[in-house]
Design goal:
- The chain is α/β, with parallel strands linked by helices and 340 residues long.
- The chain is 42% helix and 19% strand.
- The strands form 2 sheets. It has a 5-stranded mixed beta sheet with strand order 3-2-1-4-5, sandwiched between helices.
- Helix 1 (44-66) runs parallel beside helix 2 (85-102) and helix 7 (235-266) packs parallel to helix 8.
- The protein is globular, with a radius of gyration of 20 Å.
- The structure holds 5'-O-[(R)-(carboxyoxy)(hydroxy)phosphoryl]adenosine (KG4).
């Protein structure tokens, strides 16, 4: 008998549902919330309301595209955390209600574990190149920057992580002060392609071990920009491609320096990248260069699986389902936690 999992993701500002059958993706639907653009960041209250509006049509569409009836589902996997509490509650409550009404098991998924396991999503016609355990995963998103040793789908060890801001958060905030818009990641990425990465120098942190820090870079960027704008109020307009390229290069260098250290010390050359910032072209190129130079076997997700999506939740749920790792109805959503 086939195993069919419906995945539901609502941890931040994307409402998403996906259907996976025996590990193969049948459908993935994402409703992004444009409502936040005017505010330069996600407004939690608005996000939860939009999830409420989106969840039913998104789930309906995912099932329809997969050609699967609700009654065919084996289980429902949902993001239990970490994320915005109000947003999570919509997906968690919906998943619980649907699973209860269909009398099928629920599987809770850690959002960060989902990002890492996005590398295991199989597409019907796609070639399926998956990392072999153990591998190292650089997880970089709007809320997290971590280096993880992945021993098995359910055995992940955080070797290093940010002690303050996440890489994506730093990019978004710098973009915001430049008046470029939200989310800053894709905007900076596009501008950086046309700029000179050596034009400006920003400070890099000196943090021991494998941990990261991005708040110093953010602050030095803000102060430098303030000084430059005193001289030239249109400084950003005149230099935005060079600013974007130099900022991106600094962040990519910071990320790769620690990752190189981990790969050298562990001897694990199977190296993956995951999370929203892994859509960044500068970071993707740095991975390719490292593969060539240091013989790394790299895994870069398809663009659609970098940012939040339910396919990664469904594939994680699929593995947990096979292990009968079910969740009881009394488990609440949680807003903060890293990978255990
Ligand atoms: O994984 P994600 O969708 O959400 C979290 O779980 O946090 O990541 C969102 C982050 C945002 O900071 C966004 O600016 C960044 O990923 N991002 C990018 C790019 N696309 C999205 N950063 C750099 N370059 C990109 N192309």
């Amino acid at each position: 008998m086939s195993t069919i999992i419906l995945g539901i993701e609502s941890s931040c500002d994307d409402t998403s549902a996906a259907v996976i059958k025996d590990g193969v993706l049948l459908s993935s639907v994402i409703a992004s919330q444009a409502v936040h653009e005017a505010y330069g960041g996600v407004v939690p209250e608005l996000a939860s309301r939009a999830h409420q509006q989106n969840i039913v049509p998104v789930v309906h569409e995912a099932l329809k595209r997969a050609g699967v009836a609700k009654e065919d589902l084996s289980a429902i996997a949902f993001t239990r955390g970490p994320g915005l509490m109000g947003s999570l509650l919509v997906g968690v409550s919906f998943a619980k209600g649907l699973a209860r009404s269909l009398d099928i098991p629920m599987v809770e998924v850690n959002h960060l574990q989902g990002h890492v396991l996005a590398h295991f999503i199989q597409e019907p016609d796609g070639e399926n190149v998956q990392p072999k355990y153990p591998f190292i995963c650089l997880l970089v998103s709007g809320g997290n920057s971590q280096i993880i040793r992945v021993n098995a789908y359910n055995d992940m060890e955080v070797l290093g992580q940010t002690i303050d801001d996440a890489a994506g958060e730093a990019i978004d905030k710098c973009s915001k002060v430049m008046g470029l818009g939200y989310p800053g990641g894709p905007i900076i990425d596009k501008l950086a392609r046309q700029g000179n990465p050596e034009a400006f120098k920003f400070s890099k942190p000196h943090i021991p071990g494998y941990d990261y820090s991005f708040s110093g870079l953010k602050t030095s960027f803000l102060y430098s920009l303030r000084d430059w704008m005193k001289e030239d109020p249109d400084f950003v307009e005149h230099h935005k491609t060079d600013l974007a390229a130099s900022l991106e290069k600094t962040i990519v260098d910071i990320l790769m320096d620690k990752l190189r250290k981990v790969v050298k010390d562990t001897g694990i050359k199977e190296v993956a990248v995951a999370g929203g910032v892994s859509a960044n072209n500068g970071l993707r190129n740095a991975f390719r260069e490292h593969a060539k130079k240091y013989g790394w076997n790299i895994f870069i997700p398809k663009f659609g699986y970098t940012t939040d999506n339910a396919a990664m939740i469904a594939i994680t749920g699929y593995y947990k389902f096979l292990d009968k790792d079910f969740c009881t109805i009394d488990k609440p959503a949680y807003s903060r936690v890293t990978i255990k």
